[in-house]
TrEMBL record, chain A:
Keywords: Cell membrane, Membrane, Transmembrane, Transmembrane helix, Transport. It comes from the Bacteria. Residues 67-283 form the ABC transmembrane type-1 domain. This is Carbohydrate ABC transporter membrane protein 1, CUT1 family (TC 3.A.1.1.-). InterPro entries: ABC_transporter_permease, MetI-like, MetI-like_sf.
From TrEMBL, chain B:
It comes from the Bacteria. The keyword Signal applies. PANTHER family: ARABINOSE-BINDING PROTEIN-RELATED, BLR3389 PROTEIN. InterPro entries: Bact_solute-bd_prot1, SBP. Keywords: Signal. SUPFAM superfamilies: Periplasmic binding protein-like II (SSF53850). Residues 1-23 form the signal peptide. PROSITE patterns: PROKAR_LIPOPROTEIN. The keyword Nucleotide-binding does not apply. This is Raffinose/stachyose/melibiose transport system substrate-binding protein. Coiled coil: none annotated.
């Protein structure tokens, strides 16, 4: 019998993927790091400028606005998404007629191209003729008919809401698979011990989904740092770049403003921030779990 | 032994992968070019345009290509288009990969950067040899030069300003197009009083700044240009502050459509053509679309307001070459392909192409045209030709004299003031920050 689980066989099987991953993911990261230390404009020669592009970020008001907006979107999305998708998963776990259709509807936005979602929500949130403000005004709630997009205040919140709507089904599905993996006999034992539904939720389900929460948080952090199409389509980053997120500002810097070197420095900063964000959360929760154990 | 064989295997795999990737690189070189541009059917010229829907937005180009292919059976023009910002991005990326199309459109500032970096063919001699310089309108010869050499041919007559709806003006009690800033403000007040949106601008697309560039020129942009570039003059100077203050006053006077920050260029045009705004900031490229609309006979044009608080020339209008058509240096290495390309441009700028542009599609040709335009049949074109021939001095777009970084910075700053994001001083400082980084 020939075993495929030998070290050599595994290596041979992994090698093609590893090569592709290295060529298309790892190498470009190093290329970006290289250009981030230059004044490259996308054409011609790249002159080495040291850490100038990195120090410029701290004085660039638009970068700081994009950073602030990204943090706002991250916090809002994390709150909306964790709560929303967890509750949605609990609902999806209940047996009722039409459950399969319900799951499909919840997941549907995730398979729509973000650019189309941007177009749809651009119309829905338009302050003048959008559906949301029209409904609010018709209900006499003019105070709530705010400038969702196009203004200087509320665009990050609007982006967080739309992002949440887009990926809610995906995160709910991850939670659902986590819930399904919890052994039924634990719930049975709890019920025998007299635990009610809330107690089962808070003392069994949530503690046993810690890993799932970590996965979702990491995916939310990395997801927020990748939002581009929604900004492009809903606000165009405007007015005057006030609604840019880091990724959309990086794109503007590279392709419209043609400051390739500076744009690559922003890209590297995004990479570092998302790694720090994800790893620090994992570290904190793992440490907490250990101390609890 | 086993270990050695294993190393050999890994080495062979790596070598094969490298060889494959190198072969791939080789394929993207001249071998593929030959097969792409030449076949048994003749030569194919690849052409990249800056509009997404060429049939609608540049109908003259499609008609000229059809006519050219009929009269030159051995040559085909394979045209494709993308929206302007996507097009600009793609050209930069393709330049980096050395995969530029044979001919393509560029804004003037990037065209100069492309030329300086060796991506474009020096057209100086061929423009004379193929008689193109003789066909062009005098003001459009030498449209894009670097060190005295030509690198671009004009893609259009760049005329920008405000189109206005004569019916809505009459409805508001305005009897003629405003000339001075005071007349403009008065017109805005009357339009607002009549419940009509005065001016629609596609602020979401920051390139649609056009008429405001003319206003900047009226505050001495060209006179200050050398100083701006060498640092002896700051963007935060009294004249430019006055310019930004005018944009701020316009916002305070409710000059712009309420939803300006959510309004792109195309939505703004729709608003104007729907009779929902009295004025629209645009240029000559919209003539064809205006002509085919129901309100063609109602559309007038003016250059934008003149300012009494500026000591610089006021009777000026942007009447120059806009973006340019260029030939990639790589395509020009093949003499047969270059000849086919130049035959196409000779046709485009010659009598056949010019006739199609002027008569079939109601656009302004870049070449001299001997025919006559029926003003009743083409009212907007007639209006624009009248403006083109008036005695106001022709200037180029300020945008073309700046780097992309500073130019787009100026657009953002102006729209920032129009949106209420920046004060005039903040706007000027923002552009100065970008300019000073380049000095």
């Amino acid at each position: 019998m020939h075993w495929l689980s030998t070290r050599r066989a595994k290596t041979v099987m992994v090698l093609p993927t590893l090569i592709i991953y290295a060529v298309f993911i790892i190498v470009p990261v190093f290329v970006a790091i290289y250009y981030s230390f230059t004044d490259y404009s996308g054409l011609g020669k790249a002159e080495f400028v040291g850490i100038q592009n990195y120090t410029r970020m701290f004085h660039d008001a638009l970068f700081l606005i994009a950073f602030r907006n990204t943090v706002v979107v991250l916090i809002c999305s994390a709150v909306f998404l964790l709560a929303g998708s967890f509750l949605m998963a609990l609902l999806m776990n209940v047996s009722f007629r039409g459950n399969a259709f319900f799951k499909m509807v919840v997941f549907a936005p995730y398979v729509i191209a973000p650019i189309i979602i941007g177009i749809i929500w651009g119309y829905i949130l338009n302050p003048n003729y959008g559906l949301v403000n029209s409904v609010l005004r018709s209900l006499g709630l003019d105070v709530l008919a705010i400038e969702w997009i196009g203004g200087t205040k509320w665009s990050p919140l609007a982006l967080a809401i739309v992002f949440t709507w887009q990926v809610l089904g995906f995160h709910a599905t991850i939670f659902l698979s986590g819930i399904k993996a919890i052994p039924g006999d634990i719930y049975e034992a709890c019920s025998i011990d007299g635990a009610n539904a809330f107690q089962r939720l808070f003392y069994v389900t949530i503690p046993m989904l810690k890993e799932t929460f970590i996965i979702n948080i990491v995916l939310i952090v990395t997801g927020v740092f990748k939002i581009y199409e929604l900004v492009y389509q809903m606000t165009g980053g405007g007015p005057a770049h006030q609604s840019e997120l880091l990724t959309s500002y990086m794109y503007f810097t590279v392709f419209s403003s043609r400051r390739y070197g500076y744009g690559m420095a922003i890209a590297v900063a995004i990479l570092v921030l998302s790694i720090i964000g994800s790893f620090s959360y994992i570290k904190i929760t793992t440490r907490k779990q250990r101390s609890e154990a | 032994m086993k270990k050695r064989n294993w190393k050999k295997l890994v080495g062979t795999v790596c070598a094969a992968a490298m060889a494959a990737s190198m072969a791939g690189c080789g394929n993207s070189g001249s071998g593929t070019e030959q097969s792409e541009s030449k076949s048994d059917d003749g030569i194919t010229i690849t052409f990249a345009e800056h509009v997404a829907d060429i049939e609608t937005q540049e109908p003259h180009m499609m008609k000229i290509i059809d006519a050219f292919e009929k009269s030159h059976p051995g040559i085909k023009v394979d045209i494709s288009g993308k929206e302007v910002s996507e097009h600009n991005t793609q050209m930069t990326l393709l330049a980096g990969e050395d995969k530029l199309p044979d001919i393509f459109w560029l804004e003037q500032a990037p065209a100069k950067e492309f030329a300086q970096n060796g991506y474009l063919y020096d057209l100086t001699d061929v423009l004379k040899d193929y008689g193109i310089n003789d066909s062009l309108l005098p003001g459009l010869v030498n449209s894009c030069t670097v060190d005295g050499r030509d690198y671009g041919m004009p893609s259009e007559v760049m005329m920008v300003g405000f189109f206005y709806n004569k019916d809505l003006f009459a409805q508001a009690g305005i009897d003629k197009a405003p000339v001075t800033y005071e007349e403009f403000t008065d017109a805005v007040d009357k339009l607002n009083a009549a419940g009509i949106t005065p001016l629609t601008v596609g602020a979401k697309d920051n390139y649609s700044i056009w008429a405001f560039e003319t206003m900047l020129a009226r505050y001495g942009f060209f006179e200050k240009l050398d100083g701006l570039l060498d640092g002896s003059i700051s963007w935060n100077n009294e004249d430019f502050i006055h310019f930004f203050e005018k944009a701020e006053e316009m916002r305070e006077n409710d000059t712009f459509t309420k939803d300006i920050s959510n309004m792109g260029y195309f939505e703004a045009k729709e608003q104007f053509l729907g009779g929902n705004a009295a004025m629209f900031n645009s240029g000559a490229w919209d003539i064809g679309e205006f002509e085919s609309s129901d309100m063609a006979s109602k559309i007038g044009f003016f250059w934008g307001p003149t300012f009494s608080d500026s000591e610089y020339e006021q009777e000026i209008g942007i009447k120059a070459s806009g973006g340019v058509y260029v030939i990639s240096a790589k395509a020009a290495k093949d003499p047969e392909l270059l000849d086919a390309i130049m035959q196409f441009w000779q046709f485009y700028y010659g009598p056949e192409g010019t006739k199609i542009i002027a008569e079939d599609t109601s656009a302004l040709p870049c070449s001299t045209y001997d025919g006559s335009i029926d003003q009743k049949e083409h009212p907007v074109l007639g209006t624009m030709i009248e403006a083109l021939n008036d005695d106001w001095k022709a200037v180029t777009e300020p945008f073309n004299s700046l780097s992309s970084t500073v130019a787009y910075g100026f657009f953002d700053a102006t729209f920032g003031v129009m949106n209420g994001v920046y004060t005039p001083e903040e706007a000027a400082d923002y552009v100065e920050g970008l300019q000073s980084a380049e000095r």
